[in-house]
From TrEMBL:
CDD domains: AHBA_syn (cd00616). Keywords: Aminotransferase, Pyridoxal phosphate, Transferase. The active site is at residue 191. GO terms for biological process: polysaccharide biosynthetic process. The lineage of its organism: Bacteria, Pseudomonadati, Planctomycetota, Planctomycetia, Pirellulales. This is Aminotransferase. PANTHER family: 3-OXO-GLUCOSE-6-PHOSPHATE:GLUTAMATE AMINOTRANSFERASE (PTHR30244:SF36), TRANSAMINASE (PTHR30244). InterPro entries: DegT/StrS_aminotransferase, PyrdxlP-dep_Trfase, PyrdxlP-dep_Trfase_major, PyrdxlP-dep_Trfase_small. Pfam families: DegT_DnrJ_EryC1.
Length: 386
């Protein structure tokens, strides 16, 4: 049980995993006894289960979400001279997969309400060098993927969905990872379907693409010791697959808890008058989206975000900034020389966003504690000003 005197962690993986311990031990014991640490039956079963879950024909395991993004670009033959459109407001891996291949990321701005990439921004960036678009379903909510696929389809540009944070999310009731040419998932422990280490998965309806993804993930080797292309070694190991199969069985419950936590935060923040007073902007839910709440992201304006984060931290309450430095401002991407006037909403989000604890086993009393502390921060500010 959570101890109310000990603050609120941003995330408590152990608390989420503890009730499943016996199931993990049984599944892992099965792997130990089988001796099939790579390409074991759990990997194949997980691939089938994720394919069914995402309503696609094929799912291919790989070593991480980062590889799940890199491999489709390799399979598409993307390289120097090619452009790939991607939001700047995302995790590094959405972009490094492009530059690693010598291609050029072209940064799109975001919609201020959802933090997701703006389809109109994408439309304006398409050139005859555009070889792919990578929309990111940030924080567990799908980008406007119907419009993005339509814009891409007009020019026959492949769409690679970065669904690392959004397994189980949907748009117009159609799952994340089933819209584009390839869907990319991460099983990093903080993700909604989090493993006990690294892991990733790619989904696709195309048998041909699935075949190329497997080829590139296996050293480009087919048959054994004959290399058709220069691939990489990217495998999901059987231990991870066994753990993930256990967690997949409980994913619907975990998502339900995240949704309940999000609804409760929004209600509590409104009841505390923080929203009406424009002190906190609560996250918007697109009416077409089934949001799975990997993150609950509030906005704190007027340059007070960092002070609030420090105030919460002093009281043992975890919060985090995803993301403090957008990709176009990263030192390693300076050479791209991006014009900041094209990134207005991205830069504002990185100054204002604050992510609160939202993990499935977060308790109601912990949420009250978080909201009370935010209220206390503003009350202290008002007192100091008086
Ligand atoms: C949006 C996004 N893309 C890609 C990744 C990369 O996933 P991984 O850490 O499994 O390589 C992550 C997570 O870390 C992510 O949040």
């Amino acid at each position: 049980m959570a101890d109310p005197s000990s603050g609120v962690p941003l995330l408590d993986v152990n608390r989420d995993n503890r009730p499943l311990r016996d199931e993990f031990v049984e599944a892992l014991t099965g792997v130990v006894d089988s001796g099939r640490f790579l390409f074991g039956p759990d990997v194949t079963s997980l691939e089938s289960e994720i394919a069914a879950y995402c309503q696609v024909e094929n799912a291919i395991g790989c070593a991480s979400g980062s590889d799940a993004l890199l491999l489709p670009l390799m399979a598409l033959g993307i390289g120097p001279g090619d452009e790939v459109i991607v939001p700047s407001f995302t995790f590094f891996a959405s972009v490094s997969c492009i530059t690693r291949l010598g291609a050029t990321p072209i940064f799109a701005d975001i919609c201020p309400d959802t933090f997701n990439v703006d389809p109109e921004s994408i439309r304006g960036l398409i050139t005859d060098r555009t070889r792919a678009i990578i929309p990111v379903h940030l924080f567990g909510q799908c980008a406007q993927i119907d419009r993005i696929c339509q814009i891409a389809g007009d020019d026959d540009i492949p769409v690679i969905e970065d669904a690392a944070q959004a397994i189980g999310a949907a748009y117009h009731s159609r799952p994340a990872g089933s819209w584009g040419d390839v869907g990319c998932f991460s099983f990093y422990p903080t993700k909604n379907l989090g493993g006990m280490g690294d892991g990733g998965m790619m989904t696709t309806t195309s048998a041909g693409m699935a075949d190329r993804l497997r080829l590139f993930a296996g050293h480009g080797m087919r048959p054994r010791y004959y290399h058709q292309v220069v691939g990489i070694n990217s495998r999901l190991d059987t231990f991870q697959a066994a753990v993930l199969r256990v967690k997949l069985r409980h994913l619907a419950d975990a998502v339900h808890n995240r949704q309940a936590n999000a609804d409760r935060y929004t209600r509590l923040l409104m009841e505390a008058n923080l929203v009406a007073a424009d002190q906190v902007v609560v996250p918007a839910v697109d009416k077409n989206a089934f949001h799975v709440w990997n993150q609950y992201s509030i906005r704190i304006g007027e340059g007070r975000r960092d002070a609030l984060k420090a105030y919460l931290s002093e009281r043992g309450i975890g919060s985090e900034i995803y993301y403090p430095v957008p990709m176009h401002q990263q030192e390693c991407f300076n050479y791209l020389g991006v014009d900041p006037s094209t990134m207005v909403e991205t830069e504002r989000a990185s100054r204002e966003i604050l992510n609160l604890p939202i993990f499935p086993s977060l308790t109601e009393s912990e949420q009250h504690q978080v909201v009370k502390a935010i209220k206390g921060f503003y009350a202290a500010g008002a007192k100091a000003a008086a």
